[in-house]
Write a structure and sequence with these properties.
There is one protein chain. The chain is of the alpha+beta class. The chain contains 28 helices and 25 strands. Helix 10 runs antiparallel to helix 11, helix 15 packs antiparallel against helix 26 and helix 17 runs antiparallel to helix 23. It is elongated. It starts with a helix and ends with a helix. Helix content is 54%, strand content 19%. Belongs to the ABC-4 integral membrane protein family. InterPro entries: ABC3_permease_C (IPR003838), Macrolide_Exporter_MacB (IPR050250). Keywords: Cell membrane, Membrane, Transmembrane, Transmembrane helix.
Length: 929
C-alpha cells in the first residue's frame, strides 16, 4: 500500500510539489506565531524594565523591606543584618534570579545636635551602611582618635555647612535623661558611580544620616533608651532573567510575599502588569495580522488539491469498481496527504524559524537589517503548532475525497461542470458581508477617540478592527465575481451574432464554467488587494511615525545641559537663587569644525501663566529663542499637504525679530484668550521647583506678533495618566519669545542646545547622551509592536507575490491539460492555432485580467477606507500633523512587475503546450476515455 501511494505521488510530482510548498508555507506561518510571540514578549519586557530605570531613576528590578525591630530582640547590628539576609534568601528561593547587588541600612533615631562651627538644633540620625567603603569615594578626610569618627555625604556637608574635622555634639537619651556624644567628621563621601545598582537609596536620600562603623554603631545601641532600630533592605535582581516563560510565575510569588508580609515591597510587579496587558495586545495583533495570510494560503492549497483530485477522479472510480470501499479509498488518500503533511511539517519548522528571524530583523517595510534579534529563539511550542497545522492540512486535503468516492461506477458519466448557482450567490452573502464591513467601519470611525484612549491606556485592542479590512476585501472579491459573470452574459447577449467561431466557443466556455472559475478570481483579487493594502498600511505607519518624531524634536539633535542651581537662605527667611551657565562656546566651535551647520540655545519652560483681558491660562509652554540662530538650526516637518501653517514659518520668525518684546503664540492659545495679532498679553514664570513649588517671581508684558498652528518642537496635544491608569487628553499652549528679552527680564535659567548637523555627520561625532530625531526613529522602529507589524506585512506581501504567481501559472497550465481533448476537436474541425490562442486570450481577459484589475482597485479602496482607522493602534495621539496615507510607487511597480511576469510566462507556456499538442493523440485520448 505504501509503495502504491509513493507511485501516485510520483505520477503527479509537480502538482504534489506545489501542494507541498503550500503546506510548508502554511505550517511555517503557523509556527512563526509562538516564536514571534515569545520573542516580542521578551523584547517588551526588556524595554519596560529599561524605560522604568530611565523614567523613575531607579534600578528596575528590586525587592525591598523597610521597618523597625525591637532592640530587645536584636542585641547588636549583626543580628539585624542576618535577619535581613534571611529575607533575601527566602525571596530568591522562589524568584530564582541572580542577585545583582544588595543595600542594607540600619539606623538609630538620633536626636538634636549642635555642630562645632555651625548653629544648634540640627537633627541627625546615626546609621551603619555596610557597603559604604566599597561603593563610595572619600572626598575629604581628617581623623581624630579622641572621639567617635563618622562619615557624611557631600549633600549633608552642603546642607548643614559642615567641614571635615568638625565635631558634632549629639544629644541622645540614655535612660536617665539626655547625654551628649561627640562625633568628629572624619570623611566626606560621595558615590563612586551613582548609576551603580547598589545605590537604591543614594547618599543624597540619606542626607540627615551620619555614618559610623559597625563597632561604633553597636556601642551607640548601648547609650539609647530607644526601643526600636530602623532598617531598610533593597535587593537588586538581574531583570534580564525575567522572560515570558517565568514572568507569570514570579509575579504570583511576589503577590504572595506582599500578602504574607505587609512591609515587603518591590517595583517589579507594576512592570509585569504592564507587560501582561501589552502581551495580550501582541497576541491579538499577531493573530489578526496572520489570519488573512493563512486564509490566502488555504485558498492556494484548496486550488491545488482540487486540481489533483479532479485529475484523479477516474482513479477513484476504478478503485471503487474493483471492490475498494469508501473507507479504503479514504485511508489511501489519508496516507498520501499524511506524507505531504509530514514533509511539510519538517520543512515548515525550519522555514518558520527563518521567516520569523527575517521578519524580526526588519526596521521598515521590505527593509531587512542585521540588528540584534537575540530574543527571537526557537521555542518548544513551535513543535506543537507544527503538528496542529499538519493535522489541519491532512483533514483539509483528505475530507473532499470522501465526497468523490461514489458507490456506482456509472456515475463516471455524471456532469463534470457544475451549472448550479453557488449558495453564496443565491443568498447574496457578498452583499451581506460588504454591508457588515461597512457597518463595522462606520461604528469604529465614530469611536476613534475612545479607541485611541484605550490604546494609550494599554488596554487590549479589538482584533475585529484589524480584520474588518480583510472582510471587506473578501466580500468585494465575491461581488466582483458576481459582476464578472453578469458582464460575460451581457457581452454574450449583445454581440453573440457577430462572434467568430473561436470567440463563440470562448464565451460558451466562460458561461459554462463561470461558477467553477470564480474560485480563481477570488484568489487573485484577495492576493492583489491584500498585497497592496499590506504595503500601504506599513508605509503609512512608518512614514507618519517618522514625520511626527522629526516634528517633535524640531532639529537634528538636542543636548540638555547641566545647570548648577545655587540657593542661599537669608536670615530673614527669604531665598536667593541663581543658575550657573555652562560654557556655550564649545557648541559654537562645532560650526567651525564643520560638524554642525547651526547651533542655538532654546530656553523652555512648561510652567508659565498667561493672562489677557479677563482670561488666563496656566501651565503654558514657553520657548525663548534667538530668531536668526533658530532659523538656521530648527526644522519644521510639514504635513503631506503642507498645510500646518498659513505661511512659511520663517515669516513668523521675521515678525518676532522686529519686536524685542513680541511673542509668537499658538492658534489654540489665541482662541482660548480671544487674541489676534497686535494684541497684548502678560506671561509669568515660577521659581525653580527646588526652591518653591508655587511662587511667581517675575512677569512680562508682550505684544502678539504672529499666530501659528505648528512650530518646531511644539506638540499641541499631551496625555496624562492618573494613578488608576486612566488617560486624559490635554492641549498645550505655546508662547515663543526672544531669548535676550527673557534672560533680561527673568534671569538665566536652564536651556537646551539645538543642533543642525552638517551633511554626512551623526550624533556620534558630537557627544553622548544626545537626543536626536534619528535615534528616536530607530528606537521606535525597534519597538515590538512596530517590528511585528512591519515583519508580518513584509511576509504577507512576499507570500502574496509567490502564491499569486505560482497559483496563477499552475491553474492555467492544468486547465489547459484538462481541455486537451477539446482543443484537439477544435483543431480537427478546422480551427487554426491563432484562433485557439485568441479564444484563450479572451478567457484570460475575463478570468484573470479583470480580477487582477479589480484586486488593484479593491486594494486602493481598502487603503483609503481602513488605513487611517487601523493607524490608531500605532498613532493614537492627536498631533499637529494628521495621519496621511502613503502609497509608494515602488511597491505598486514591484507587484505589477511580478504579476506581469507571471501572466507573460503563463501565456508563453500555454503557447508552447498548444504547439506541442498532437491532434490525433488528443482524439485517441477522447476515444479511450
Amino acid at each position: 500500500m505504501f509503495g502504491f501511494v509513493i507511485n501516485k505521488l510520483k505520477n503527479r510530482k509537480w502538482l504534489n510539489l506545489c501542494l507541498l510548498m503550500g503546506v510548508a508555507l502554511f505550517i511555517a506561518l503557523f509556527v512563526c506565531h509562538p516564536m514571534f510571540e515569545k520573542g516580542a514578549g521578551n523584547q517588551i519586557l526588556d524595554r519596560l524594565f529599561t524605560d522604568h530605570a530611565t523614567q523613575q531613576n531607579e534600578f528596575p528590578a528590586q525587592m525591598s523591606r523597610e521597618g523597625t525591630y525591637a532592640v530587645a530582640d536584636y542585641p547588636d547590628s549583626q543580628s539585624v543584618l542576618d535577619k535581613l539576609l534571611g529575607y533575601e534568601k527566602k525571596w530568591t528561593e522562589y524568584v530564582d534570579i541572580n542577585k545583582v547587588s544588595s543595600q542594607l541600612l540600619i539606623t538609630l533615631s538620633g536626636g538634636r545636635a549642635d555642630t562645632e562651627f555651625g548653629g544648634p538644633n540640627n537633627y541627625f540620625t546615626i546609621g551603619y551602611l555596610p557597603g559604604l567603603s566599597e561603593y563610595a569615594d572619600v572626598v575629604k578626610s581628617q581623623s581624630d582618635t579622641a572621639t567617635f569618627e563618622c562619615s557624611i555625604s557631600e549633600k549633608t556637608m552642603d546642607h548643614y555647612g559642615l567641614v571635615a574635622g568638625e565635631k558634632i555634639y549629639l544629644h541622645v537619651p540614655d535612660g536617665s535623661g539626655k547625654k551628649e556624644i561627640s562625633f568628629v567628621i572624619s570623611q566626606i563621601c560621595r558615590e563612586k558611580d551613582i548609576n551603580d545598582p547598589y545605590w537604591a537609596k543614594t547618599l543624597s536620600d540619606m542626607g540627615d544620616v551620619i555614618f559610623v562603623s559597625q563597632d561604633v554603631f553597636d556601642e551607640m545601641m548601648q547609650y539609647y533608651s530607644e526601643d526600636n532600630i530602623s532598617y531598610s533592605d533593597f535587593l537588586m535582581l538581574d531583570y534580564r532573567q525575567i522572560n515570558t516563560e517565568n514572568a507569570s510565575l514570579y509575579d504570583g510569588y511576589m503577590e504572595q510575599f506582599k500578602d504574607a508580609d505587609k512591609l515587603y515591597n518591590d517595583n517589579i510587579r507594576d512592570t509585569l502588569e504592564r507587560f501582561f496587558t501589552q502581551q495580550k495586545t501582541i497576541k491579538l495583533m499577531l493573530w489578526a495580522l496572520e489570519l488573512p495570510c493563512l486564509v490566502l494560503l488555504i485558498l492556494f492549497i484548496r486550488m491545488i488539491s482540487a486540481q489533483i483530485l479532479s485529475l484523479e477522479e477516474n482513479d477513484i472510480l476504478v478503485l471503487r469498481s474493483r471492490g475498494a470501499t469508501k473507507l479504503q479509498v479514504f485511508i489511501l488518500y489519508l496516507q498520501q496527504s499524511g506524507i505531504i503533511a509530514f514533509a511539510g511539517c519538517v520543512l515548515g519548522i525550519v522555514l518558520g524559524y527563518i521567516m520569523c528571524r527575517a521578519a524580526a530583523s526588519t526596521d521598515g517595510f521590505l527593509r531587512f537589517t542585521a540588528k540584534d534579534i537575540g530574543t527571537y529563539r526557537f521555542v518548544w511550542q513551535m513543535l506543537v503548532y507544527a503538528v496542529a497545522a499538519a493535522v489541519i492540512m491532512v483533514l483539509f486535503i483528505t475530507v473532499p475525497v470522501w465526497k468523490k468516492s461514489k458507490d456506482a461506477i456509472s456515475e463516471r458519466s455524471r456532469e463534470r461542470i457544475s451549472k448550479k448557482k453557488p449558495l453564496w450567490e443565491k443568498c447574496f452573502i457578498d452583499v451581506i458581508l460588504l454591508a457588515l464591513s461597512a457597518y463595522l467601519l462606520y461604528n469604529y470611525n465614530k469611536q476613534k477617540s475612545t479607541l485611541a484612549i484605550s490604546v494609550l491606556e494599554n488596554r487590549s485592542i479589538d482584533p475585529v478592527m484589524i480584520l474588518d479590512n480583510s472582510l471587506f476585501i473578501f466580500a468585494a472579491a465575491l461581488l466582483c465575481v458576481r459582476l464578472t459573470g453578469l458582464i460575460i452574459l451581457l457581452v454574450d447577449r449583445l454581440f453573440k451574432k457577430h462572434f467568430s467561431p473561436a470567440m463563440y466557443a470562448s464565451f460558451l466556455q466562460l458561461k459554462r464554467t463561470r461558477y467553477n472559475q470564480g474560485f480563481l478570481a477570488v484568489f487573485l483579487i484577495m492576493t492583489v488587494a491584500g498585497g497592496i493594502f499590506d504595503a500601504n498600511m506599513a508605509r503609512t505607519m512608518n512614514s507618519n511615525m517618522e514625520k511626527r518624531i522629526v516634528y517633535n524634536v524640531g532639529c537634528d539633535a538636542i543636548y540638555n545641559e547641566d545647570f548648577r542651581l545655587r540657593i542661599q537662605k537669608n536670615k530673614d527667611g527669604s531665598v536667593n537663587w541663581m543658575y550657573d551657565e555652562p560654557d556655550f562656546g564649545k557648541y559654537e566651535s562645532l560650526k567651525n569644525e564643520g560638524i554642525c551647520d547651526g547651533v542655538t540655545r532654546v530656553l523652555e519652560d512648561e510652567r508659565v501663566d498667561i493672562s489677557a483681558g479677563s482670561g488666563s491660562i496656566s501651565d503654558a509652554y514657553l520657548m525663548a529663542i534667538n530668531t536668526k540662530e533658530f532659523g538656521e538650526t530648527a526644522k519644521l516637518q510639514s504635513d503631506q499637504n503642507d498645510d500646518i501653517n498659513d505661511a512659511h514659518w520663517f515669516n513668523y520668525l521675521n515678525e518676532l525679530a522686529k519686536e524685542p518684546d513680541g511673542v509668537i503664540i499658538s492658534s489654540n492659545l489665541a482662541k482660548a484668550l480671544g487674541l489676534k495679532v497686535g494684541d497684548s498679553l502678560n506671561y509669568s514664570r515660577y521659581v525653580p521647583e527646588a526652591v518653591d513649588d508655587d511662587q511667581i517671581y517675575a512677569s512680562e508684558n508682550a505684544k502678539v506678533c504672529a499666530i501659528v498652528k505648528g512650530f518646531p518642537g511644539y506638540e499641541r496635544y499631551t496625555y496624562e495618566t492618573d494613578v488608576e491608569g486612566n488617560v486624559t487628553e490635554q492641549e498645550k499652549y505655546l508662547i515663543v519669545a526672544n531669548y535676550a528679552t527673557v534672560v533680561e527680564k527673568f534671569g538665566m535659567t536652564p536651556y537646551s542646545v539645538w543642533m543642525n548637523l552638517s551633511k554626512g555627520k551623526t550624533v556620534d561625532d558630537i557627544y553622548k547622551n544626545l537626543t536626536s530625531a534619528q535615534q528616536l526613529i530607530d528606537e521606535n522602529k525597534n519597538s515590538a509592536t512596530v517590528q511585528i507589524t512591519n515583519g508580518m506585512f513584509t511576509l504577507s506581501f512576499i507570500l502574496s507575490l509567490i502564491v499569486c504567481s505560482v497559483g496563477f501559472l499552475l491553474y492555467w497550465v492544468m486547465t489547459l491539460k484538462q481541455r486537451e481533448l477539446q482543443f484537439g476537436i477544435y483543431r480537427a474541425m478546422g480551427m487554426r492555432m491563432r484562433e485557439v490562442k485568441e479564444m484563450l486570450l479572451n478567457e484570460q481577459i475575463f478570468l484573470s485580467f479583470l480580477p487582477l484589475l479589480a484586486g488593484a482597485g479593491i486594494g486602493i479602496t481598502a487603503t483609503a477606507m481602513f488605513v487611517r482607522l487601523i493607524s490608531i493602534i500605532y498613532l493614537p495621539q492627536k498631533h499637529n500633523i494628521g495621519v496621511n496615507v502613503y502609497i509608494y510607487q515602488s511597491d505598486m511597480l514591484e507587484l505589477a512587475g511580478v504579476l506581469f511576469v507571471a501572466v507573460a510566462v503563463c501565456y508563453v507556456v500555454i503557447s508552447r503546450l498548444l504547439k506541442s499538442m498532437k491532434i490525433a493523440q488528443a482524439l485517441r485520448l477522447g476515444e479511450d476515455s
